[in-house]
Design a protein that fits this description.
With 344 residues, the protein is of the alpha/beta class. It is built from 14 helices and eight strands. It has helices at 17-31, 87-91, 98-109, 121-126, 142-148, 174-187, 189-198, 226-233, 242-249, 253-264, 268-286, 291-298, 303-314, 318-323; strands spanning 5-10, 43-48, 79-82, 113-116, 134-135, 153-154, 160-163, 166-169. It has a six-stranded mixed beta sheet with strand order 2-1-3-4-8-7, with helices on both faces. The longest helix is centred in the last third of the chain and has 19 residues, at 268-286.
Length: 344
């Protein structure tokens, strides 16, 4: 597996506070090396429409991007990300630069993975990259996106949309969900889970679709739950019941159920299932163990039970999933391609 190169197109020369968040998410996820998780990490470069270091900010906020890369920096990148566009471009009061749209089309035509966060979808749509595709953006902008680009199938009910080599996310923190999803596709569940823990990301954010990024022990904010959840993740290969977890936490089953649901948004049995599936992912990625043994070690039981839950949750069989990770008898999948075939 390879992280590859990530080029980020920054459009405005005066970055609003709101848009700094999405840009910061991209820089945090892809720009900070984690050699203990994957080496090499991503090669990140920020590309400005006007990279002149002497140009003062055009607005009152005082933030301007200084980078040696112009839009030509998008050429050759494995992944191109548009973290945002100016609000005036969303409202239609200002057109996006032609040179940006040409650079995006060139990248898409040569097969780069194209990604937008929040209002960045307007740039991909204006370049024609979202034509005939399902996409999303911040819920405050989806109506405008659908109105201005009727050829795009806009879905305002999800955190992000993975449409193979084109991915879009809703606004603000949903951009982090999508960036972690990309890490998971590129480097595997274990790396994404560990990175999510370092970023203190909650477990399994709801969003109307199965998400691949789940941390092993969620940050619950409940000191009484963290130790028992850690204890449970170390014993996933053993039978575990709600009564077992409640007794370990020193609570009644009803109290434990209520506190876990309040802290994580899920029930104890759903939480256990997600941890078992995450363990199965890691075993399929990192070992050549038979599917039967993966089922046993993850606590999902028989190979048939593993296949049923895995296919239901991820839309792919364990065997096909393993093929996406070369080195254990699988085939190589180009970064940006989702492996999704008919189940057994």
């Amino acid at each position: 597996m390879s992280a590859g190169s990530v080029a980020v197109a920054v459009i405005d020369d005066d970055i609003p506070y709101w848009d700094l968040y999405e840009l910061g998410v991209v820089c945090t996820v892809f720009g900070i090396p984690h050699p203990d998780l994957a080496d090499p990490w991503y090669d990140l470069r920020l590309c400005a429409a006007d990279p002149s270091p002497d140009q003062p900010p055009s607005g009152p906020l005082g933030f301007t991007l200084r980078t040696p890369y112009g839009l030509e920096g998008l050429d050759g990148a494995d992944t191109v990300i548009i973290p945002s566009v100016p609000e005036a471009c969303v409202d239609g009061e200002r057109e996006l630069p032609d040179e940006l749209l040409r650079a995006l089309r060139r990248a898409a035509d040569r097969g780069a993975r194209m990604v937008s966060l929040c209002a960045g979808a307007f740039a991909l749509a204006a370049a024609g990259i979202l034509d005939g595709r399902r996409a999303t953006a911040h819920w405050m902008h989806t109506e405008a996106l659908a109105r201005r680009h009727p050829e795009v199938e806009v879905d305002d009910s999800v955190l992000y949309v993975d449409d193979g080599n084109v991915l879009t996310s809703a606004g603000v923190t949903a951009g982090l969900d999508l960036c972690l999803h990309l890490v998971r596709r590129d480097l595997g569940a274990h790396v994404a889970n560990q990175l999510a823990r370092r970023l203190v990301v909650p477990a399994h954010r709801p969003g109307g679709q199965a998400q691949f990024v789940e941390v092993s022990v969620p940050e619950t904010g409940d000191d009484g739950l963290a130790p028992v959840l850690q204890w449970a993740t170390e014993r996933l290969d053993q039978p575990l019941t709600v009564d077992d977890l409640a007794a370990r936490a020193g609570m009644s089953p009803r109290t434990f159920f209520r506190r876990l649901q309040a802290a994580t948004g899920t029930t104890p049995l759903q939480w256990l299932l997600s941890q078992r599936l995450s363990r199965a992912q890691s075993l399929l990625e990192a070992t050549a163990l038979p599917v039967e043994r993966v089922g046993e070690l993850s606590g999902l039981g028989t190979a048939a039970n593993l296949r049923r839950h895995f296919t239901l949750h991820f839309g792919i069989t364990p065997t096909d999933y393993r093929r996406a990770f070369p080195g254990h008898g699988g085939r190589t999948v180009r970064p940006g391609r989702t492996v999704r075939r008919a189940g057994h």
